[in-house]
Structure formats: structure tokens, C-alpha cells
């Protein structure tokens, strides 16, 4: 596998981890009555993952592993 494909898999894993962390935070918000810090820990972890994703996207762009594209724009002929 090329570095670009592995990087895209890494990005998908990060996105899934962010979603899981967000759902666990929602669960702790709704069901946790113990007064523990699990909600804060879950949301802090999600923010750290989001920052990691943002920095990873910038690095991937700079290394040429991902390329921006126009959404629905036609290239000039």
C-alpha cells in the first residue's frame, strides 16, 4: 500500500474515533449520575482527536498525500 492510502485509512480511523468519543460523552451525559469526570474526560479526548485530525490533514496536504478538489466544479477545457 502506498503512503497516501495508509494516510486515508488513518484519517477514517480518526473520524470514527471522534464519533465514538462523542457518543460516549453523550452516554455519560445522559446516564452517569455518579458525579465522576468521565464526561469531561471523554470530551477532552474528543477535542485532542479533533486537533490531531486537523494537524494530520495539514501534514497530509503538505506531503501531497491528499489533494483539495472543487466540489462539483468543472475543469476548464
Task: Provide an overview of this structure.
It contains 2 helices and no strands. Helices cover 70% and strands 0% of the residues. The model has no long low-confidence stretch (mean pLDDT 88). It has helices spanning 3-31, 38-62. It is mainly alpha-helical and 77 residues long. The chain has one domain (3-62).
Number of helices: 2
- State the assembly state of the protein chains: single chain
How large, in whole angstroms, is the Cα Rg?
17 Å
- Morphology: elongated
Number of domains: 1
Rounded mean pLDDT score = 88
Share of helix among residues?
Answer: over 70%
Distance between the ends? 33 Å
Which sequence of SSEs, written as H and E, runs from N to C?
Answer: HH
Beta-strand segment tally: 0
Main sheet overview: none
Strand proportion? under 5%
Summing up helix and strand content along with how strands pair, one would put the structural category as mainly alpha
Low-confidence stretches: none
Task: Give a concise summary.
With 77 residues, the chain is mainly α. The chain has helices at 3-31, 38-62.
Protein topology:
Layout: H1 3-31, H2 38-62
Helix pairs in contact: 1-2
Amino acid at each position: 500500500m502506498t503512503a497516501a492510502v495508509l494516510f486515508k485509512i488513518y484519517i477514517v480511523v480518526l473520524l470514527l474515533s471522534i464519533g465514538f468519543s462523542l457518543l460516549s460523552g453523550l452516554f455519560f451525559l445522559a446516564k452517569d449520575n455518579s458525579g465522576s469526570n468521565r464526561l469531561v474526560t471523554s470530551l477532552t479526548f474528543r477535542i485532542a482527536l479533533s486537533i490531531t485530525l486537523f494537524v494530520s490533514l495539514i501534514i497530509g496536504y503538505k506531503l501531497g498525500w491528499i489533494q483539495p478538489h472543487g466540489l462539483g466544479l468543472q475543469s476548464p477545457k
